[in-house]
Write a structure and sequence with these properties.
single chain; mainly alpha
């Protein structure tokens, strides 16, 4: 990845987990 992915992961993981719980 050409840029630090930490902010993306921190923003994306909760959304993924929420969708999986649906």
């Amino acid at each position: 990845m050409p840029y630090p992915a930490a902010p993306v992961l921190m923003a994306g993981l909760p959304k993924i987990l929420y969708i999986k719980q649906q």
